[in-house]
Amino acid sequence: YMKLVADIVVAGGGCIGLNIASRLRQCLPGAVILLLEKEERCGHHGSSRNSGVIHSGFYYTSDTLKSLMTKTGNRKLTEFILEKKLKLKRCGKLVVATSDSDLQSLDILYNRGQENGIDVHMVSESEALEIEPMVKTYQRALWSPSTSVADPVEVSAAQVDDAIELGVDIQTRCTVLDICDKSVLGKISVKTNMGTIEAAHFVNAAGLYADQIAHKCNVGLQYSILPFKGLFLHCPLKQELRTNVYPVPDLRQPFLGTHWTVCASGGAKVGPTSMPAFSRENYSILPPISKFSETSQIVTDLLGMMWHDSQGIRRLALRELAKLSKKRILSDADQLLHAPCHGNLARDSTWLRPGIRAQLMSRSELVNDFVIGRGCLSTHILNAVSPGWTCAIPMAHHVVDDYIIPQLNK
């Protein structure tokens, strides 16, 4: 049985939706908060399929929401994990250079970290080797001691428990089909496969489907989601990896490059890829025939970006699609560590569950920052890609305190 009347309806049971619903109950303890999740359980997609890295915040320019939220998000998520006694590896991160051309970008990242108040240090090659004896770097590296790793599946389950304990009503297997904004009456109708719900406000935290739902409310019409698939390999190493090891990224793009990550449960993994996915839930190699129209739109959007190529997407797409091969992923990873394993790494490594990044695009360019849209009686989280998992708690506070509560008080 599902309630057909609620004060606020939240669509999407990932880390963003769960934290928003919980924050709403904290701010409005008497309100009926109904969270809708189309899968059998919350956090089935990006919230449990990400790398588990708790970012520190040095990648982002100081004028972005990402820079404002990541430092707080790192602290808040770490506190949550410690309070719940979940797995946490406080292992830090090295960003390593491979050539002269990387050094300027490394300096830019260091300066961004300083501007954002992040604990980040430029270290020499010998100092980097003291932190991680297997690391390869050219002249110097960036050291971020506050970067950590947790288990996203554990975190998602704990966030569900918290939301339920706070009194959030969670309805799984419930898909949003349409939205009717009756702002004249002060209500919004949410049509689902389980009935139509009347509410005072609607929150769209639907991840891969956030653009489609926003468009039903005439919000964010200039945006669309372009999904990117992230593949990881679990790799047996000859010695324990002490810290995460990342390359210097292409600063035009919102991707951080194939890297080595310490696993919260032990061992190490390499990835993710950033290859275009040809449907929003295309976890296998090819999308199903039933998603033909969706695939056609994604291909059209991708070709448009490759044609304009203002962010180097043409080279990225061609390079990343080749990483369906283990050897291709590992050839990138080989630039970061010296002889990490005894045997044949391609033979001995195993694929982990893939994830799909709900990357927003606008006018043939990828959108780098978080994006939040506002409707008459609705709020839409349109872009919450990495470090969205790290930032979920402060983002929820921002959305509730600065968007939803003021609208309800009008």
UniProtKB/TrEMBL annotation:
Ranges of residues in domain FAD dependent oxidoreductase: 7-400
Catalytic activity, as annotated: (S)-2-hydroxyglutarate + A = 2-oxoglutarate + AH2
EC number of the protein: 1.1.99.2
UniProt keyword annotations, A-Z: FAD, Flavoprotein, Oxidoreductase
Ranges that cross the membrane: none
Top-level division of the source organism's lineage: Eukaryota
Cofactor: FAD
UniProt signal peptide: none
SUPFAM superfamilies the UniProt entry points to: FAD/NAD(P)-binding domain
Entry-linked Gene3D superfamilies: D-Amino Acid Oxidase, subunit A, domain 2, FAD/NAD(P)-binding domain
Enzymatic class: oxidoreductase
Molecular function as annotated in GO: (S)-2-hydroxyglutarate dehydrogenase activity
Pfam families cross-referenced by the UniProt entry: DAO
Family membership: Belongs to the L2HGDH family.
Protein name stated in the entry: L-2-hydroxyglutarate dehydrogenase, mitochondrial
Organism from which the protein derives: Spongospora subterranea
